[in-house]
Amino acid sequence: MDARVTTELTFDVDAWSAKHLNRIERALERWVTAEVCADVAYGAPMTLIEAMRYAVLDGGKRLRPLLVLAAWEAVRGEAPSADDHEAPLRAACALELIHAYSLVHDDMPCMDNDVLRRGKPTVHVKFGQASALLAGDALQALAFELLTPTQGIPADQQARLCGLLARAAGHSGMVGGQAIDLASVGVPLTEHQLRDMHRLKTGALLQASVCMGAACGNPSAVAQTALQTYGAALGLAFQVVDDILDVTADSATLGKTAGKDASQDKPTYVSILGLARSTAYAQELLAQALAALAQSGLSHTQALQGLAKKVVNRSC
Questions:
Q1: Which end of the chain is more exposed for a tag (fewer CB within 10 A), N or C?
Q2: Roughly what angle, to the nearest 10 degrees, separates helices 86-106 and 174-183?
């Protein structure tokens, strides 16, 4: 059997994830603190810091930071130097902070008005709307602070990472998709329109996770294009599965309110394609993602393959 195939068959994505999750959690615990966040003369009020930490710590799949590290490993090879860990770890945590801020704002009464996230009360329920709004704002700013340390990451690499994250999070990415989502409540969308919305709302940040991980190394043009294609397919697959789980899983399993999309009359893949076709489409997107990796010219894509399979075959 081909050595590469043997490695793929024996690769344990759960063990790989557990190892890296420990690093991610320790870094988030260290960086989302009063010491880091207190930039004004007397420090930020502790309520703000508590709300920020509540939003980020003790919950979440950490898919985005894992994708950063998996893409970086794919580009750097099997045994990257310990000196190269600073940029990918900071990029991983920056992605998670942007994701966390988006959830804080998305759950607020002016948007989705949700009371449950990651199995616990949402931030505005726990701390009030004003504190939730400010916590989200502060997490967004802290993400870019993490990417611009005074030492450890070259200035040109800082600029690349900040640019990728800003474009993915802003009006031409996640926030733009959220705006379309809010404007689409009760409005029938075509499959094409729904796909375009979710490429921005959910897909942009997931694709950026892969691209930022790659940007921490030095990928070839072929590898960079393949990873972008992988990230795009994975980002869309994630949302398709999310829509499926919204109607097939309960709130306890999901850690958030199940059936919320239907109750708010939001267009979803299930409402447009039906459950069976949506399930098949998720598998098609998985195949596209794996095909892109096969064409990347990269030898160490096992973690990216495993994460893609977990995204599509997950139950929560």
A1: N
A2: 20
Chain CA centroid to CA 15, Å: 20
- Report the C-alpha gap between 42 and 52 in whole angstroms: 18
Q: Which of 40, 51, 19, 218 is nearest to 120 (CA)?
A: 51
The span from the first CA to the last CA of the chain, in angstroms, equals 35
What is the domain partition of the chain in residue ranges? 11-313
Q: Per residue in 11-68, pLDDT tens?
A: 899 999 999 999 999 999 999 985 555 554 456 688 899 999 999 997 889 999 999 9
58: left (phi over 0), alpha (psi -120 to 50) or beta: left
At the fourth CATH level, the homologous superfamily of domain 11-313 is Farnesyl Diphosphate Synthase (1.10.600.10)
Paired residues of 116 in beta bridges = 121
Q: With a cut of 90, say whether residue 278 has pLDDT above it.
A: yes
Q: Name which of 198, 199, 228, 222 is nearest 67 in CA terms.
A: 228
Three-state DSSP state, 85: coil
